[in-house]
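Bug #77: duplicate submission created two jobs. Keeping one. Sequence:
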Amino acid sequence: MLRQTGEHIALTFIALAIAILAGLPLGILATRFKKLETSVLGSVGVIQTIPSIALLGILLPVFGIGVVPAVVALFLYALLPIVRNVHSGINGVDASVTEAARGMGMSDNQILTRIELPLAVPVIFAGIRTATVINVGVATLCALIGAGGLGEFIFRGIALNNVQMILAGAVPAALLALGFDMLLGFIQKHIKILIKPFYYIAAVLLIVSVPWLFMSIFDSDEQSFRAGMPTEFMERADGYKALKQHYGFDIPTMEMNQALMYQAIKNKRVDVIGGYSTDGRIDAFNLKVLRDDNNFFPPYSAAPLVHEETLRQYPELENALDRLSGLISNEDMIEMNFRVDEKGENPKVVAVEFLKEKELRTEKERQGSEDIIVGGKNFTEQFILAEMFKNVIENYTELAVGTRLGLAGTQIVFGALINREIDLYPEYTGTGLYVLLKADSEKAQELGNSQQQVFEYVKEETKKEFNLVWLDPLGFENTYAMMMRSDQANRLGIESISDLVDYLDNRRVPLR
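Kept job's structure:
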């Protein structure tokens, strides 16, 4: 926690220092050249409207992953309050004061440095104070691109529904924001006395932080073999930690958002990722799925997971959903994911067209109050499957269906099902085994890699423990998988995870 708090503070203050250095002259220029005023203030205002995760995605191909794009993003977000307050502070100086100074023979530069800036300091400092608090909050999102900080705790906790882990990140971040706001508020109140000590302290913090920034930059050279992993995969029982123990390897790893992770491997910012075997971006980005030759990953048969009370209330639901049983192959799911992820097609259109190909009815779309709510996690495949569920239910029953999609992480959507906020969603038997039922290694070894045994065990135990019902599997397996760029894997002769381990051992990759 201390390390990640230090990273968080360093990210915040490096970006803030750069924003002050850039924001002061920009704000001054906006007051001196009226033609620039609208364009300068408008530009920094537009930057502020870009969603944080979108800005990080835009910066990733240019700056890669890690500290550099995080600092750039925070710098851009800090510009608006600083530039606007410099502009407002200088323009707010009484015109009679500047006229008197001019009458005394002072030049424009003297008026700026000796009259306007000193009088505008409280307003300018208020902008710096606002920018600091904004940066502390936005810096949590930088964990999504492997920049570290307290956001790592928050996103892992959200993915795993671990309240303690969420609080481990959220509480220090909130205390930092409140602490910095109070400190800067005190300095602002006594600005005339404390302005010089503030500058000295800020200079020391910058001097301490800059070497860390440069180490992060130069530590990301192309000779370093790196992995990018999605947040949920980092802590799951069938995830990265257990995978490393099973195969006996370790790779410098960056935790990041799933969508950004695929962009990172495409742009050669990482060398290996943990993704999904049916992801459409495998073919689109020319990735190779490494063979799980030591059989670590369990079967991940996709199937509808329904609350038993819902089935009791609407028994016709099971017959409708059974029409999807065994209908979707791995190749079908990869193709549908590809159409949505890379061709930009609507998940609903893709789902309906697939059902038409399989000669299922698709013409009805019921209106009115929702009898059934279908949920889904926040990745493409779940959007497609949820649309299929909705379609077959509405066309083979008299029920009207609503959707609650994009729910972040397994435990979020599972909790929604337990609490009857949704009635069903697509789930995977491997996730049911390790995440929902928290099976130990002995049970997993006993079940082996038998799809049928895992399904039967998960079905029986889930009903017994949670009053939930697994319906028949849909036909495809979406396992977790380690992936590399095909050209790199072929060049290095890596076909399986064991090949990757051998390569790392021979290469003696240093830990980051």
